[in-house]
Design goal:
mainly alpha, Cyt_c-like_dom_sf, 57% helix, Cyt_c-like_dom, two-stranded antiparallel ribbon, binds heme C, 6 helices, Cytochrome_c-type_DH, iron
């Protein structure tokens, strides 16, 4: 009886969310882990960067496709060098971008695996 009640409770909790919302939440949770593992060393957990070594990215105005290419390929300029991330797959990058938009962009749209795959086509 108890487990039946728990199951019913779990079901009613999930029923409040659409399939898209559940997917979005999964992206954000996974993206936060990926961000911590691959980006926070330099840009810090709060996205504020580190002095003048690593720029703050919490207010970056890059579009999602620009961000996907930057994460995959890295960037070198007169002021700094961000290494490429050849090991990150389209799904990882989609999750990182969705997390960043959720955390700092006030944007709850999922940047999907498919969109990321299209943007990264031909880039290794
Ligand atoms: C080794 C340090 C390092 C790591 C790790 C790193 N970055 Fe960067 N990132 C930089 C540097 C340095 C720049 C500035 C590059 C330049 O001057 O062109 C930069 C630039 C950026 C920018 C551009 C800001 C703008 O508006 O132009 C974004 C966004 C960004 N990084 C996101 C990320 C994400 C997401 C990750 C993880 C996948 C990541 N970075 C990992 C060092 C790093």
């Amino acid at each position: 009886m108890k487990s039946f009640l728990l199951a019913a409770l779990a079901l009613s909790l999930f029923a409040c969310q659409t399939k898209e919302e559940i997917l979005h939440d999964q992206y954000v949770i996974e993206g936060r882990i990926q961000y911590e593992n691959n980006c926070a060393n330099c840009h810090q957990s709060n996205g504020e960067g580190l002095r003048n070594l690593y720029p703050a990215i919490s207010k970056s105005t890059l579009s999602a496709p620009e961000l996907a290419r930057l994460i995959k390929q890295g960037r070198k300029s007169a002021t700094g060098y961000m290494p490429a991330n050849p090991k990150l797959q389209a799904i990882d990058i989609a999750e990182i971008i969705t997390f960043m938009r959720h955390e700092w962009g006030k944007n709850e749209q999922t940047f999907t695996f498919d969109s990321t795959r299209i943007v990264l086509k031909g880039i290794n």
